[in-house]
Every structure is written in C-alpha cells, then in structure tokens.
Design brief:
Blueprint (H helix, E strand, L loop, with lengths): L7 H22 L10 E11 H6 L6 E4 H15 L6 E6 L3 E6 L2 E13 L10 E15 L5 E10 L13
Parallel strand pairs: 1-7
Antiparallel strand pairs: 1-2, 3-5, 4-5, 5-6, 6-7
C-alpha cells in the first residue's frame, strides 16, 4: 500500500483542528464551561449519541443541543442547578483525520477518551476511571475572522451505557 501524501494546506488544516481540539479539551478539563458554547457557530449542533444508534442511522441521542441558547442553558444547569459528587475530567483527543468538505464545512474525525477522578478520601476518592470513549465526528465552519468553529459535533460513544450520568460536555 502506498502512503498518502498530504499537501501543505491539508497539513496546516489538520494542525489547526488538532490545536482547536487541544484547546477544547483544556477548556473542559479546567471546568471553564461558560466558554464552551464559544467553540461552536451560533447555530451549532452538539450531540452525544451511542455508536449503535449512529451506525443504524437512528436519531435518538443522550443529549442534543441546538445553538448557543441551548448550550448556555446547559452551562447554567451545570453551574447553578445540578448537585452531584464533584469530579475532575481529563480529555485525551487523538490526531484529527480530514474527511473532506461539504456545503462549505470541513469534515473531520478524531478519537477521544474522557477519564474521571473523584477527589478526596474514601473508596472512590482519588481513583481514576474511564468515563467515556468514542470519536468526534465534526463539521467545522471557517468564520469571517478566519477562526474555525464547530457547526456540528457528534460525540459517538462506544460504550453501551454511560457510567452514572452525563453532566459535563464530552
């Protein structure tokens, strides 16, 4: 098999998407949820969907947020109304694969793993666990100021269930 050659333009674009994903992970890992909607275009779509439903073309998601309004409402809920045992998240995101372009959007995909650690003493304290593993299926849209923002992010998780509950964005 002959290895594919990447053009300089493709290499720069992949680097830009990888940098975006690294910043996205850092923002979530720092619990900076108020800035999370800013990763998306104003009409952006965020979905968390099981692999089985995704592959079957079934629309049922665990979470679907359409636009900044719904995303900010979720952030408000996380910050002001949800009560749960605290935990830290750590995202590990693989190198992006460029899949092409469609309707002016750049299509990309990257594997992810989210680890969770509960602080404190006791049986669950200080122990890290794999919380969610899957892939981001993304549509990026170039903005007028030349930034890339997500017009859509599907978090397609491999597990058949999510441990406890999904509180923070993946």
């Amino acid at each position: 098999m002959t290895p594919l050659k990447m053009t300089l333009e493709e290499l720069l674009l992949r680097s830009e998407i990888d940098r975006f994903n690294a910043d996205y992970a850092a923002l979530l890992d720092a619990d900076d949820f108020t800035r999370w909607p800013d990763c998306f275009a104003a009409d952006g779509l965020y979905r968390v969907i099981g692999r089985e439903n995704h592959e079957a073309g079934l629309p049922l998601c665990i979470m679907q947020l359409e636009g900044h309004g719904m995303m900010r409402d979720r952030v408000y809920g996380i910050s002001n109304t949800l009560f749960h045992a605290p935990y830290y998240q750590r995202h590990v995101i693989g190198t992006a694969r460029l899949l092409g372009e469609e309707g002016g959007d750049i299509l990309a995909e990257a594997n992810y793993a989210v680890f969770r650690t509960r602080p404190g003493a006791g049986m669950a304290g200080g122990v890290s666990e794999v919380f969610n593993v899957g892939r981001y299926i993304d549509r990026f849209r170039r903005q007028q100021d030349d930034r890339l923002l997500l017009s859509r992010r599907d978090c397609v998780f491999d597990s058949e269930m999510i441990l406890n509950s999904l509180i923070y964005p993946i």
